[in-house]
């Protein structure tokens, strides 16, 4: 502060460690009336004013340290006014008695107050009396106005006396000798005391230290005594209306309020955009200087001392004064409920001054002095306002720590305290106050968010969670249980808390506090201490980052992490990758960000509108991202790109989905632990989860999460990492303009099928793509939602008919198949197409493959996937066949028999026969509609007529044999005879195992059947059975032994074995089994009835009936004889006519 007036020191105390203002004037030797060496007595005590009040201090001095030092000669009277020898009281009276020196306690104007307020043993010590009287603030104990005036004149003369320095030289003789800088100061210019103040922290001599402290206490009791302060701030005092009472009026010691008022004006100016009143630069320096000089002893801040005296007794009774310890203690209790508002307000003002000038904190300035110099954190060419700010100091030193440099433990401890202080009270950051004033109500504006982001960087809670007191208190129980293995204060505590977010161990309050902090940490990669430590080299190499406390508009903090994770998932072929340590940290951060959409700054920034539009009701854990993925096609372009990139990243490393991983932990440990342990996932883990989605160990949350990811994958083939990597080149070449995964799969599958059918020498789709394509096709069959077109076409039908059926395990698809006839046209067509695909490739039939999994391993381990159903059908009646699998095979057989197109083997075998014999049926049929077994019925009739090609005949024989055992395999019979079956053959139809009982029942009851179409179907069955005994299971079972004995040499087919049995029946030498004989007679009667009821419709039918008749030989013999007779008659008639013609010619 500029020096003005007599005795002011010509230079300010600017070096680190200066806490006190340069002392004006010199002090006379006879301070106490007992010689200069009595300073030790009058100044005894710890600090200026102590912490228990004047009475307590004086009692301690008397009891603990003695009351007097040595006396040097007779005391001289002490003049109060300039030039005066003896002080005069207000009435002009002389000083106290001769020989003992002048005493304050003996002045008439103060005697009553001294007796009333001060201990008797202190009356002989003028400074003890002064301290006692000036520390009184209680209304009931106010001192008189005249006494106040006397005290003011006493202090003024005391601080301006030219002998002030001489006392210092005497009291601090040994200290001056030890401190070379002070010993070299010139005599008589007041520099000595200034030097001693500068080196106060190094003074070990008790009396010298107390001398400097006591004089400072006197000066700071009134701003007018502070050298130059009045001159620098007079105009500002008037401008801010900080003027206090005039001298001579009551309570002149309230002048400390003036300094407090100016300090508040300075703080308020920093918190306003356009301050109405501005403090002059000269006064600003003076205010901050006073704050700096009062930084070690809270008694020197008179306003704060009086405001917090009771709170000091309450909270900091055992805290020794000096070196800012009381300040720090009070700061730590600032938010206690019992802290008085007056004290809290004074402490806040003090903290705001520290935020503007770190030197206002004695302990911080002292502890970090060498580190600030070492790391150039107070560079001379920087503006004073910037380098003095607490935030600049913290960020500069934090940068050194993050770079791995050594910062002293004392300094780091102080930094921790002040980082915590800034976190506890947002009002200490002027930028936040400014942004709150400008921001809209209810919204956190951009400026406010940036100010908060800056605060988080300054305080750096990511390095030590304890800095955030709210988080520390809220999460204490969680840390004690879930993170007790981590050292307190370790940066990994935050990571541990994030890992337990949304778990049973997490408490709600901790969850909120943690997400609040992570919101800001996620927006600047440097704020995650572990990430920065492990990745700063990679970030500098790959992302061209700057230092920890440097920012760049070209590379904002959020962009650095994006750069890192792009490189984290590069393959070796793609070029530069992250180090292993950094990659692990990037994955950890991605896992944490997946917990909540707000922790991904890019996602929240680009998708804010879409979140409000589509996901306003999705507020549960993880629902927001799922919602965005569900509405991917509806999102705005920027948001769609961000969600798409994130989903693509998840497909490569599903462990990023921390919530899903947590839900699927049991499945992963049981079935997928090998792929989960891989450092590089590459989509293997999700593939494993999909394959085991229906294991009994699978829980509902995991199943839902896996299915959701499958559904999201259908929106873009890039979302399936393995598929993308295997088929990327094939897609670009063969399906360039297709994006949706299902369309890409169809495109590639069609190409593969065409190449296979055309026996192409070289497949257009690469082998690795064909393999992965197969995996994708199989996965899509598990859930109808993975077939978007089918799902959309059948949505209403699902709602109407399958509402309570679960989606998984292809149960919805199976439900639709079973009620196919009731479906809407569009859905029916889609289901038919699906069945056609499944029958061509049974491996795509999810239900069949699931139900018959073990039977396939038993009976068809080496069968080709396309022949799987055929293999199962051949082993259907095996004794060891699983009943559920047998039932499923029957279902598929029923389906196949409804339409020849659903039976690829039949279709191929009869491709010439179908258009030849059944073209009229094909002409009537519409595209994509089922033929309800009409074509197969047509082929059955032709089989009975023995007109089919050998391959087709073999296939139809199998169908007839199977349907003869189970009426459900004959769709035409079931459709036309449903009423008759329920009325006439209900018991047979209800049998658990179908062995032809229903067909036999219908044949026996043929005469009772009224419906013409049903009767026709039964007659057709009879007709078919004449062609081959194998298609009549009841008859075949009854005559099995007879066929073996009498017809073993006759090959089956074309009615040969049936003719053999008929001949044996007519041959009286052959004895057939009674049951066989009975069944044969019954069949003959039925055939006879059939011939009457359904006569031949044409010559071809008649010929067929003859050829298939058991009496074929007899009929053919009769026909042959008849033809021969006709031939002979013809010959005879020809001779006669020829003779008649010759006779006519002869005429």
From TrEMBL:
Ranges annotated as biased composition (Low complexity): 79-89
Compartments it resides in: Golgi outpost; Membrane
Compositional bias (Gly residues): 90-100
Ranges of the Cys-rich GLG repeats in the UniProt entry: 142-204, 278-338, 443-505, 577-636, 697-756, 764-824, 880-947, 1009-1069
Presence of keyword Oxidoreductase: no
Keywords carried by this UniProt record: Glycoprotein, Membrane, Repeat, Sialic acid, Signal, Transmembrane, Transmembrane helix
Predominant location category: Golgi
Composition bias type Basic residues, residue spans: 60-73
Segments passing through the bilayer: 1114-1137
Bilayer topology term: Single-pass type I membrane protein
Pfam families in alphabetical order: Cys_rich_FGFR (PF00839)
InterPro entries: Cys-rich_GLG1_repeat, Cys-rich_GLG1_repeat_euk, GLG1
GO cellular component: Golgi membrane
PANTHER family noted in UniProt: GOLGI APPARATUS PROTEIN 1, SELECTIN LIGAND RELATED
Name listed for the protein in its UniProt record: Golgi apparatus protein 1
Organism: Calidris pygmaea (Spoon-billed sandpiper)
